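User: Before I run my own analysis I want an independent prediction to cross-check against. Here's the chain; please return only the C-alpha cells and, at the end, one sentence I can use as a sanity check.
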Amino acid sequence: MNASWPSWLQRYADLPRGILWLALGQFLLNLIHTAHFLLLNLFLRAHELDDPTIAALSSQRFVATFFLALPAGLWLRGRKLRRPLVISALLFPLTALASLFAVEWESMRAANLCFLLMGLAALLLNVGSIPMALRIVRADQASECLSLLFATWAAASISGGLLSACLQAIGTFSWGDIHLVFDEMSTLVILTCAGLGAAFFYAKLPDPAPDAHAPGRWFQIHREDYPKLWRTLVPSIIIATGAGLSIQFLNLFFHSVHDVSSSQYSLFGTISNVLVLLAGIFVPEIKRRFGWHGAIIGVQSAAVALLVLMGLTELMRGHAWALPLAAFCFMLRQPLMSMAGPAISELTMNYVGDRNRELMSACNGAVWSGAWWLAARLFQLLRSFEIPYWLIFLTTALLYLVGTLSYRRMIRHLDTEQDERKNADSVAL
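Assistant: C-alpha cells:
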C-alpha cells in the first residue's frame, strides 16, 4: 500500500494473506446467516408451518450449540484447525440446502436433523475461527485481525440484504423457455450456494501447529485455569442475558410503540450495519489511543446510554420527535456495541491463554445460546404481565453495565502483565 496512507490503514494491509482467506470465507458463510435472518421464517410460514413448529425447527441449532459447545471446544483444543474448518464450511451450506428441500418435500424429520447438523457445523466454525486467526497473525496484529473478521458480519448483512431485496423486487424472470421465480426459496438457495465457496478459501489457510502446552488429554482442564475461565465467562453471561432480553425484540418495540413498518425497520437496520462496518475498522486505533478501558468500557457505556434513551421514547411517543430520536439511538447503539466486540475477544483470548482459546470460544457460544433462549422466555413472561418496553430496556442496561464493569479485573491483570514484561525487557537491556 502507498506509504502516504494512514498508519492504521497500513496495518490492515500488513495482515498475512491467510487472514484475508479466513475473512472471505466468513463473509460467504455469513451470507447464509443473513438469508436465514431475513427470509427463513417467511419461507417456513409459506409452507404452512405454525409458530410452534417454526420455533422448534430454529431451536435445533441452539440445542446443538448449547449441548455440544463444551465437548467441541475441548476436542479442538491442541489440534490443527484447518481440516475441521474446511469440513464444517462444507457441512454448513450443504445441510442448509438440505433443510430447505426437506421442508419443500414435507419431510419434517429430515428437516429437524438438517437443522441440528447446521447447528453443529456453525458451532465448529465459531469455535475454531478466532483461535485459528490468532495462530496465523503476530501478537501485535491481533486487533486488526479480529476487527476485520468482525466486520465480515456487517458486510454480509449489507450485501445479503441488498441482494435479497433486488431478487425479491425482480420477482419473475423469463428468457426463452427459461422461467425463474425469485421467491423466498430461490433467494435462500442462491445465498446458501454462495456460502459453498467458503470451503475453497479455508482450504488455502496455513495450518499452524497448536500450543505446545495444551493438555495431553482432550478432556483435561488444568486446575489453575478454572478461575480464569470463570472470571471470563461471568461478564459474557450477564451481557448475553441482557442482550437476549431486549435486542432480539427491537423490531417488536418499534412496531408496537412507534408503529414502524417492516420496510422502515429494515432501512434503519441497513444504515446501522453500514455504520457497524465503518466503525469496526477504527477499533484497533481506539484501543491504541484509549486502551482497553476506552475500547470496551467507554464504548459500551455510551451504547448503554443510547439504549436507555431509546427505551424512554416509549414514554414520549405522542411527540413528533420521539420516533426520530428512537431511530437515531437504534442506528448508533449497534455500531458502538459492535465496536467493543473485537476488543473483548482479544482481551478474553489473551487472558485465558493459548491453550484455552478454543475452549473459551466454545463456552461463549454455549453461554450466548443458553442466555438468549432463557431471556426470550423471560421477555415472554414480562410482556404477558404488560411490563412496558422501557422497563425491560432499563433492566438490559443495568445488566450491560454490570457485565461491562466486570471486565475491569481482566484489564488490570493484562495491564500488570504488560508492565512487568516492559520492566523485564528494560532490565535485560
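Sanity check: The chain has a mean pLDDT of 84.
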